[in-house]
Amino acid sequence: MKAFILEAYSKTGALRKAEVAEPVVWDDDVLVQIHAAAVNVLDAKIKSGEFKLVLPYRLPQIMGNDVAGVVVKVGSRVRRFKVGDEVYARPDKDRIGTFAEYIAINECDVALKPVTLSMEEAASIPLVGLTAWQALVEKAGLKKGQKVFIQAGSGGVGSFAIRLAKHLGASVATTASGANIEMVRRLGADIVIDYKKENVEDVLRDYDVVLNSQDAATLEQSLRLLKPGGKLISISGPPDADFATELGLPWFVKLVMTLLSAGTRRKARKLGVSYSFLFMRADSKQLAEIASLIDGGKIGAVIDRIFPFEETNAALDYVEAGRAKGKVVIKVR
């Protein structure tokens, strides 16, 4: 099968298109013929080696973390899916590889595709949908009437998180550049701050939750926006010891992450708020709940561009440049 593989960590190097063997299908796996795969900032970070301490892939590695397609084979113990099912998934972090024609995925990480979405639209959802769900529902416990600040509202995670937060009954503030302000307002944001013209601290205060996806300076500022008891969940770091424990990483990696997040956690304690890092995990049950929201008209897909499979590297370059509004998708089949 054709696939795009990472041969060496590099910020500037390209993935190589190659002919590789079709994946082995284990007893609990489904083999998915890939119709579409989304490109994420995570893919760029993996390619550059930024995550090699916590995601130590053995190169060469097929890249890609989002998929929508059709089940063409099932393992002997699979009971939830059959050949012909249209599915979507974020494969487990140890079994990525959606920039390809086929992928084998444990059935526990797969859900039926939302029936109201095309393959390209469905492929845009899993990683950002699970990230927003695990941040706002699991970690933050966001409730009706609370206030949440979601950074970068026009991005992949931000555009999904705004709509999920509104569904949960929260008041949403976000940031965007002038060209994207109307877009995030249409998504449901109550307060939109043009980060090129306004200081967030001049506008927001006493927030219950912040979803941080930006740099260290923005994170420190965001801690000050929270009211006492508020929660900051960061998907851009720094990682903490709880994250290392969740991944079962060695003690020395846990120590490193404890040190990396020490300053942020200390500042949070002084302000009477909490800090936690989120690296989303695959979860078919949550994907099924997200599919129900989508098919119920509560949330939809936001796609910027669709690239043909042959232009996978161009799609990755586009995402790395930070120009995407919503998601970028590769049409594989």
Automatic annotation (TrEMBL):
Domain of life: Bacteria
Domain Enoyl reductase (ER) span(s) in chain numbering: 13-330
GO molecular function: oxidoreductase activity
Sections of the chain in a coiled coil: none
InterPro entries for this protein: ADH-like_N, ER, GroES-like_sf, NAD(P)-bd_dom_sf, YIM1/Zinc_Alcohol_DH_Fams
Gene3D superfamilies in UniProt: Medium-chain alcohol dehydrogenases, catalytic domain, NAD(P)-binding Rossmann-like Domain
Protein's name according to its UniProt entry: NADPH:quinone oxidoreductase
Source species: Massilia violaceinigra
